[in-house]
Amino acid sequence: MPVRLGLPMFGPFTGLRNVMGTRSSPNATRSAKNGIRVCFAAAVAMSTTLIGGCGDGGMMSRFMLKSDRIIVERRPDPVYDLLFPYYVELCATSQFRSKLKGEGGVAGHAVMYIKGACKDEQAPYPQLRRCRVAATELDDPEHGAGVSVGRWFRNVNWVAVPGYELFYEGNLKTGERLTQASLEAAARDAMAKGVYKGVDFHDYPSAGAGLENFVVNEGIGTDFALQFARSVFCARLPVTEPMLEEVIAFLNDKNREYAEGEADYNWSVWADNCSHTLRNALAAANIWSPLSVRAVKFRQLFNLAVPANEFVNLAELGTEGAIDDYREIQQDGPERDSLHGFHWLPTRHGALLKTLPVHEPNDLYDTTFRLFTLQSPFRMGKTQHAIDLLSDERFVNLSANLHYFHDKYDAVLASRDERHDMLASVRGTPYRRVERLLYDYIKTQRAEVESMLDKVSALESQPDGPNPK
Length: 469
Hints:
Blueprint: H1 11-20, H2 26-52, E1 64-66, H3 80-83, E2 87-93, E3 97-98, E4 102-103, E5 109-115, E6 117-119, E7 128-130, E8 144-149, E9 158-162, H4 164-169, H5 180-192, H6 211-219, E10 232-238, H7 241-259, H8 274-283, H9 307-320, H10 326-331, H11 333-342, E11 352-356, E12 370-372, H12 381-390, H13 398-418, H14 432-460
Antiparallel strand pairs: 1-12, 2-5, 2-10, 3-4, 5-8, 6-7, 8-9, 10-11
Helix pairs in contact: 1-2, 5-6, 7-8, 9-12, 13-14
């Protein structure tokens, strides 16, 4: 189950809960309302301090995931793209620190890469289309596209960046030095590929200096060329073709709403930020539940979306969810709908995590490895869980992942046989269909994993083929 994370467990929430539980006279009611406003203001002020930007020392260091606590670089095997035609990667990126321009927000940024969705070159503003082929190589122009929500965008919510290499690496090769010239080359490539075609902007720092100035100063490291400036943490989840269609439709509708409607997009750290859009795009495919945007007053505090937390939430869902209890699945809305509608469950083989460090050598940005998670300062659950998952071979190594889920599927099917009830066929139960559906699904997944393991073994035996780690 995804973890819905609100704010750190500080005093204002206790006060808010007590105020809301009081029924008294009109004067008391007015006092209660004033108390809610005070608590809300205190919570917002405190959270602004946390999310808006602080140093790494003192208490803030407890919220940071650092390089001495984790393996800095994890990449899914090259074989992965031969086995999985469609997947989504929800990524949290760290705070960027420019040697020339200063620091970004401490909470970093959230982006999503979608294999199987490509930038629609014919659209007058950012839209996605289905890629024309199921690509097997990362450098294939029909591999996929990155999606990034921008705080300065006015007539759209997000932009699409064509291709894995431009989105993550800025077309810079491993070991090649990042200089001002290579940064400007990446910016020109993004503009030539129409990343900002049809995008209007709110006023931003250095507004009026031209599009290239925006791309260099605001786009690089945030919308594309992520590794120029940030560490990147991604949870990768294979999806079905119908699910991919739903994700594309949601995102296209989102941009159409602003580009062709009367309302402007107004980014809000609390009410409508990068993480809200990406989480809700996945919710459109029944991967998990959506988060409300711009809920009434203090209720929006319980619908906050923090980039690193959403990365951990998807990592937990893809690796640790229950797939052996059909009763639990039937009672969980998104899981029930994904099983019935897409014959798919989020905890599955191919759910992998990856981390990518800031590019080195680097003349322009600090390359310190870090990630911010919002949590109680007294309980470091989110940070520790990220460390645990990223240190587990089952969730970062393709071969280990396939073997783990093969055993898991076997155990689910064996458990069913052990507890088989001879009278189940005649007893009344609301779970008959979902039980049959689940075990048929598990059998299908086990067969798919067996086929994938055979393919991986065959590829390993080829002297010139990909070499899974």
